[in-house]
């Protein structure tokens, strides 16, 4: 489907500038305060198992992530977030490949079906 061998993921969010998830974790605002979002391993590659890690998310009964393509329809990826041994929340994901030079994805952090915060990130060939 996609000939992309390497993907660079850049995260931009509501007025806070850009953050490169291939280089570091990123902060996002919620009603309850800031959370920290990261992907492992870095750099993020399509069709490779990745882990989303969220730190600082509090007061959520059913934490989940929802990822979907904005540039092109590649389906919807919904995963429950589970606590890891450090007490952070995490979920395993695998991003779909695409033939476009740049693919923009939306990432929503949810409490069941309610959006807590959202952002966009892009993958590049």
Structural features, described:
The protein has 125 residues and is mostly beta strands. The chain has strands at 10-13, 17-20, 26-30, 33-40, 50-55, 63-69, 76-80, 82-83, 89-93, 102-111, 114-124. It has a 6-stranded antiparallel beta sheet, with no helix packed on it. Strands 3-4-5-9-8 form a 5-stranded antiparallel beta sheet, with no helix packed on it. The chain is globular.
> Largest beta sheet, briefly?
6 strands, antiparallel
Strand arrangement within the widest β-sheet reads 2-1-11-10-6-7
Overall mean confidence score, pLDDT: 83
SS content category: mainly beta
How would you spell out the order of helices and strands?
Answer: EEEEEEEEEEE
Strand coverage percent = over 45%
Give the CA-based shape: globular
Portion of residues within helices: under 10%
Ends: how far apart? Answer: 13 Å
Total strand count, please? 11
Low-pLDDT stretches are 1-17
Radius of gyration: 14 Å
**Number of helical segments with 4 or more residues:** 0
């Amino acid at each position: 489907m996609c000939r992309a061998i390497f993907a660079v993921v850049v995260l931009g969010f509501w007025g806070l500038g850009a953050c490169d998830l291939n280089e570091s974790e990123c902060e996002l605002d919620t009603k309850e305060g800031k959370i920290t979002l990261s992907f492992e391993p870095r750099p993020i590659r399509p069709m490779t198992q990745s882990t989303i890690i969220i730190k600082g998310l509090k007061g959520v009964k059913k934490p989940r992530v929802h990822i979907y393509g904005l540039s092109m329809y590649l389906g919807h990826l919904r995963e429950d977030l589970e606590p890891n041994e450090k007490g952070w929340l995490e979920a395993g994901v695998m991003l779909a490949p695409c033939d476009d030079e740049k693919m923009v994805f939306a990432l929503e952090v949810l409490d069941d079906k309610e959006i807590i915060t959202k952002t966009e990130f892009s993958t590049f060939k």
